[in-house]
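Is this the right way to post structure tokens for a design question? Let me know if I should format differently. Anyway, here goes:
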């Protein structure tokens, strides 16, 4: 049953690595001696955000590449070229959501301890309210309608549709556009929080 569990395992890796790596990077940046020099430079906030995002994305995607490489070496399971593009898009969107969420947590908290505690708590909540641990059918209808927008569930469902049924993006449009909305919202929140913390730091 590895084909059915692999999408959830892949999202778990994206969840924890994306949240932990990005939040730790932001906390280390805030605690470094160069933090004040970055604030007084004429460089825009957007450039720092994009730089942090791309560096974290490179780390997370490297981990995913190693996972697929090990899967190919030990089981000789290869990804079909027909689904490679769609699979890459969903992985990229999922990694972006969790990385941006981790960056937001890093900007919201001051110390590494509180940031790591918030990251682990949020990751456990997202993992708990998913089909991986708790079947959604056991939840009340009201809670189930809210949990349906859990990015973990959206990503896992999209990956299952692509890996098992070779579904096109049109068949997973709900997951695709919802993940895009998450990315847009997190980018705006990160920019606002960084701008607010910059003004408070300067004052």
């Amino acid at each position: 049953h590895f084909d059915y569990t692999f999408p959830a395992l892949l999202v778990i890796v994206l969840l924890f690595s994306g949240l932990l790596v990005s939040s730790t990077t932001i906390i280390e940046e805030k605690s470094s001696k160069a933090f004040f020099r970055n604030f007084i430079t004429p460089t825009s906030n957007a450039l720092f955000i994009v730089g942090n995002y791309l560096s974290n994305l490179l780390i997370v995607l490297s981990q995913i590449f190693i996972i697929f490489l090990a899967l190919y070496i030990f089981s000789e399971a290869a990804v079909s070229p027909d689904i490679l593009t769609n699979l890459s898009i969903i992985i990229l969107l999922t990694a972006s959501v969790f990385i941006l969420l981790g960056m937001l947590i890093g900007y919201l908290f001051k110390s590494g301890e509180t940031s790591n505690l918030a990251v682990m708590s949020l990751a456990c909540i997202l993992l708990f309210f998913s089909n991986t641990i708790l079947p959604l059918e056991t939840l009340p209808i009201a809670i189930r309608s809210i949990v349906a927008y859990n990015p973990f569930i959206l990503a896992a469902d999209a990956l299952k549709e692509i890996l098992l049924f070779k579904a096109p993006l049109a068949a997973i449009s709900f997951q695709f556009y919802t993940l895009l909305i998450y990315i847009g919202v997190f980018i705006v929140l990160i920019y606002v929080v960084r701008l607010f913390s910059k003004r408070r730091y300067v004052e």
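Format looks fine. Someone answered above. Worth noting: The helical segments are 2-31, 35-40, 45-75, 81-108, 112-128, 141-147, 151-165, 173-202. The mean pLDDT is 88.
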